[in-house]
Amino acid sequence: MFRVYIGLALTLAIGPLHAAPPTSAEILAASKPTDWRPLDAANSLLMQLPSGPVLIELAPTFAPRHVANIKTLARENYYDGLAVLRSQDNYVAQWGDPDAEDASKRKPMKSGVRSLPAEFSRPIAGLKITPLKDGDVYAPAVGHVGGFPVASSRKTGQAWLTHCYAMVGAGRDLAADSGSGAELYVVTGHAPRHLDLNVTLVGRVLQGIDRLSSLPRGTGSLGFYELAEERLPIASVRVVADLPTTQRPALEVLRTDTATWAAYVEARRSRKDEWFLEPTGHIELCNVPIPVRIAKP
To answer: Which of 120, 129, 185, 214 is the most exposed place for a label (fewest CB within 10 A)?
Structure first.
């Protein structure tokens, strides 16, 4: 009995001898201001849909020429009045010019933007990749760079963005160099990683993905809308840095090169929350959501 009282006294004085490890939410709550970075306003787009805004952060580190095209098109208001043309179940939503195939009706590009060589990958040299130790089915190695999911191969010396949920890509035809950024799509279903190294990825949706993932599915081939009235009109697309300061989304993105990020990934890899009966002990690249929060004043 004496030993029991001693044990209880110690517990009350210093807490449980084996305290539960922090959850991912607790890790984020305890993060430092330096664990977060501000939204890259110069390389972000704000797309206005009837249901509200969609914020896209672009990735010039991986697709500089496509990003430049997209920003040019946004600045000439090219996307204004276009539409979401396709919503394929468990796959993608796609937007662009409904009349792109008709030379007499298609919307002109004032800047003369043209199709570009593919930017499917880039050299690993110069990249600081935070590796994910669990491995990957599609690539020799995976990890994160600047808040984007990345795969890489030391054998080829290349790294590339991956088709995780909410990633944005530039549509193309059969030829690798047939995409310009005039037509874009976003992953709205299970990660279609078979598209990696086949399409140029240009960024990811930071806010508003629900406005695209919840759209009615198109009944045409590949989820295209068969009737014009089914398409979702795009009111406008603007580069965030071009907006008045008061209209810019005030967001921060968790940095993926910090000790807080490492702890966050580990908490999601080995679930020690009270609800979990099996902690798993593994995690895949596309199951590591990158936190975004409202910037603290």
So the answer is: 214
